[in-house]
Write a structure and sequence with these properties.
CATH architecture: Beta Barrel
GO molecular function: porin activity
Keywords: Membrane, Signal
Shape: globular
Strand content: over 45%
Oligomer: single chain
Organism: Aliivibrio fischeri (strain MJ11)
Mean pLDDT: 84
CATH superfamily: Porin
CATH topology: Porin
Main location: membrane
Strand order of the largest sheet: 1-3-4-7-8-9-10-11-12-15-16-17-18-21-22-23
Number of domains: 1
Radius of gyration: 23 Å
Helix content: under 10%
Subcellular location: Cell outer membrane
Number of helices: 3
Structural class: mainly beta
């Protein structure tokens, strides 16, 4: 009965609009909305030998990280600009935090409805959390994400759908952002978890050629229960039995502090320190990380060298063996007529294991 009433109400509204002479318009052509199409064309050839919880394999592969987005905006009231955006993920990437769902779909990256003015910017939908925005850039580039981003105990969120975020205007050199949200994927389960939520904020202060920044995030994370089953073992080619696991609910906390500075003669430096914590009635896990990046530009030619490390984690005050990891990565790049060709070589070491070397040659172009 309720659905019937709802449909009837919609039909009545449609009839009323039609009788008033309101008809559908072709957005961007005969509509007064401003519509932008933007994206990144990015493809690379990578030679890798990595075995961890995200990548397994050896040899060459072609990776297509191209994406596209659409943005429409129009002033609703004076000093209130409404923006609607939908953005795809990488063409052939898989978002492991979403249970293996393909990333190359519309709405996978920042997708929201927002309102902005000289009072700030509010976005409702799928956006980066304030803390992760700093983790992601500049401190996980170039090629440091396997350690500083998703590596380690991962006590922070990244891009979340069920989120309301506010970004302030600049007050001189100072700005801040704050958000609240819920876990939209059960940390791999594929469904929203109402028991999992977070609140976070960041702040930045710039003067001269240096920017100080920091972020904090606190919340509850839920890892759903899993039934017993079988899991493919790439080393043996067999299906190994996997025991059932109960649901785990953690109180999560993370913080980051860092800076980015432009130095004379084309040099620059950035560094950050991050701490994370997962805590429940059975155990408490903590881990700290840091990232240091230097760069040099001589006209259109640039070079970046980065090093990131996850220090050993501790569970209930005791050090976890082989829980540390580090990555050192160098990237040579150029900017020519909007194109950015690059060569990146990175070495990653986990615990006492041998260092894995990953070489990547790629080309990017933003439009």
């Amino acid at each position: 009965m309720e659905n019937k009433f709802f449909k009837t109400t919609l039909l009545g509204a449609a009839v009323a609009l039609a009788s008033a002479g309101v008809t559908a318009k072709e957005v961007g052509i005969n509509s007064d909305f401003n519509v932008d199409v933007y994206g990144v064309a990015a493809i690379s050839v990578v030679n890798y030998n990595v075995t961890d919880n995200r990548d397994e394999g050896k040899g060459f592969a072609v990776e297509n990280e191209s994406r596209i987005g659409f943005r429409a905006h129009k002033e609703m009231f004076e000093n209130v600009l409404i923006t609607m955006q939908i953005e795809s993920g990488y063409v052939d990437s898989t978002d492991w935090s979403h249970g293996g769902v393909s990333g190359g779909v519309l709405g996978f990256r920042d997708t929201f409805i927002g309102a902005s003015g000289d009072w700030g910017n509010v976005r409702v939908g799928r956006v980066l959390t304030p803390l992760y925005e700093i983790v992601d850039w500049p401190f996980s580039n170039p090629g440091l994400g396997s350690v500083f981003d998703w590596g380690g105990i991962a006590g922070h969120y990244d891009r979340q759908s069920n989120q309301v975020r506010y970004d302030s205007p600049k007050f001189g050199g100072f700005s801040f952002a704050a958000s609240v949200g819920r876990d939209d994927d059960n940390n791999g389960g594929g469904n929203a978890t109402r028991d999992a939520s977070f609140v976070g904020a960041n702040a930045k202060y710039s003067f001269e050629k240096i920017t100080f920044m920091g972020g904090v995030e606190s919340g509850t994370r839920v890892t759903p229960a899993k039934d017993a089953g079988f899991e493919f073992n790439p080393e043996t080619g067999a299906s190994d039995p996997v025991a059932a696991t109960p649901e785990v609910q953690d109180d999560a906390f993370a913080y980051i502090v860092g800076f980015e500075a432009s130095l004379p003669a084309g040099f620059g430096i950035a560094a950050a320190y991050k701490g994370e914590e997962l805590d429940n009635s059975a155990r408490k896990v903590t881990q700290d990380s840091y990232s240091v990046i230097g760069q040099y530009w001589n006209g259109p030619i640039g070079f970046k060298l980065g090093y990131a490390a996850n220090l050993e984690s501790e569970t209930n005050g005791k050090t976890d063996k082989n829980s540390d990891s580090n990555t050192i990565s160098g990237q040579l790049m150029a900017v020519h007529n909007g194109f950015v060709p690059y060569l990146r070589i990175a070495g990653r070491t986990v615990g006492d294991a041998d260092t894995d070397i990953v070489t990547r040659i790629g080309l990017e172009y933003g439009f």
